Every structure is written in C-alpha cells, then in structure tokens.
Amino acid sequence: MRLKETIEAYQRNDPASRSKFEIFWLYNGLHAQIYYRIAHWLYTHKMKFIGRWVSQIARRRTGVEIHPAAKIGRRLVIDHGTGIVIGATAEIGDDCLLYQGVTLGGTGAHKGKRHPTLGNNVMVGCGAKILGPFTVGDNARIAANSVVLKEVPPNSTVVGVPGRVVKINGEKLDHIHTPDPIRAELDYLNERIKKLEEQMEEA
Question: pTM of this prediction?
C-alpha cells in the first residue's frame, strides 16, 4: 500500500477532508486498509489464522470487514466505511470508491471464485450489494442500494433491485438525479393505457 497516494485519493474524493494529518488519524476507511494490507501479507505467507485474526480486529475497530484473501488495487477510497463487507475472492482495481454499507459478496457455498471483480475507477454507492463471480467494468457507477447480480459493462450506470443498466458512456452519477427504471416503465405503461383508452372512445 502506497500510503501517501492513498491519502491524496481521500483528499480528492472527500470534500469534508481538511488535511492529510486528519485523514491519517481519523478515517476508518484508511485504517481498515492498513489492517487489510497486514492481514493480506500474513494470509499469503502461510499464516492464515493470524491473518484472519488481524482482519477481525480491524472489523471490530473500524466497522469494515475485508477478508485477507481479497485482492485490492491502489488508491482505494472507503468513504465512512461502516458496514462494508468484502469477500475472500473479491478483487478491486485501482482508483475505486466504496461508500458505507457496500457488500462484495457471493451467492452460494461453492468453492472457487464466488465474489465480484471491480475494474478500475468503479464507484459503488452506499448500501449497494454486488453478489456473484462476475466483473463490474472500468468506470462503472453503481447507485445506492442497488442489488447487482450480473456483469456490468464498462462506463455504465446501474440502478435498482435487481440492478439494471440505465446509462452507457453517460455523465457521472450524482445520486440525486439517478434515473429510476421502474418509474420510467410505469410512465410508459400509463401513457400506453391512456392512448388505448382514447382509441376505444373514438371507436
């Protein structure tokens, strides 16, 4: 873990941050990553029990649970962090941003790859669940509280339960003007019903 560049990534992504000193001492997401790097080193050097023990200490102290077998790239930002769970076979690329309550989880007890792979520069909104051994492409945006169960193309935005792609190569997701695919479908059906009623009245 390159601590300096990670702290700088926190500064870029968190408008509330005031200094590198504050981020280093007070940000749970950063502390969780420091614990993870120690646990990951232990786990991959045949000290699996101690690695898991360190990860459980991190969970109690930071509210973030990262399995030491997970693979995490550079400059990950965990904003707030409480309630985040990252599974054993999860992989996270560079320059990703995770908000509180995110789960990178599995959908069964089978062996092998069970958890998602996030590409580079992926943003996952608070409370989102990404479940299964598929890839979320580079520059993708997952809206808050979405449940993603299948592959996400690069440069796309996913919304809803289950998650649906609502934009490809669109503008950056801002969480306020997030498209609602269910509302759009209901509006379409209402408009269709209205036209059919008008046709029946004319007949």
Answer: 0.82
3-class secondary structure, 26: helix
Angle formed at CA 73 by CA 159 and CA 37, multiple of 5 degrees: 120
Q: Identify each DSSP E strand in the chain by its residue range.
A: 65-66, 71-72, 77-78, 85-86, 91-92, 97-98, 103-105, 117-118, 123-124, 129-131, 135-136, 141-142, 147-148, 156-159, 164-168
How far CA 152 is from CA of 40, 117, 140, 144, in Å, comes to: 27, 10, 7, 15
Burial class of residue 78, CB neighbours in 10 A (0-12, 13-18, 19+): buried
Give the tens place of pLDDT for each residue, 60-118.
999 999 999 999 999 999 998 899 999 999 999 999 999 999 999 998 777 889 999 99
Q: In this structure, which amino acid lies at residue 173?
A: L
More confident residue, 12 or 181: 12
